[in-house]
């Protein structure tokens, strides 16, 4: 197997399920260690065990809310403490409601925007400030 990400560390928001989980798996199968981060720690812990089992790499599950910069700061600090580096950021956290736009409340739409846009900015800024800068 080609290990193009050998010994790198990826931080993946929304990494406990769906597309984020598969991104983590692919990176880990190619030699990367991963942090998977989202709001549901139980789901993350279960996913981390499975990811490590299939890849032989380390996977750190961390609870964050991308709308809360303090939780991102704590997670990035824990990542750097555990791995000593952070090479790749995947902003995958997303809010969505499976309904027609006409059925979406104003508050639900605001929540989607906060997670998808502000969350991406918040996480990118923290990772940049804490490590990439």
UniProtKB/TrEMBL annotation:
It catalyses: a (2E,4E)-dienoyl-CoA + NADPH + H(+) = a 4,5-saturated-(3E)-enoyl-CoA + NADP(+); (2E,4Z,7Z,10Z,13Z,16Z,19Z)-docosaheptaenoyl-CoA + NADPH + H(+) = (3E,7Z,10Z,13Z,16Z,19Z)-docosahexaenoyl-CoA + NADP(+); a (2E,4Z)-dienoyl-CoA + NADPH + H(+) = a 4,5-saturated-(3E)-enoyl-CoA + NADP(+). The keyword Endoplasmic reticulum does not apply. Keywords: NADP, Oxidoreductase. It holds the Pfam family adh_short. Its EC number is 1.3.1.124. InterPro entries: DECR2-like, NAD(P)-bd_dom_sf, SDR_fam. Belongs to the short-chain dehydrogenases/reductases (SDR) family. 2,4-dienoyl-CoA reductase subfamily. Monomer, dimer and oligomer. This is Peroxisomal 2,4-dienoyl-CoA reductase [(3E)-enoyl-CoA-producing]. The gene is DECR2_2.
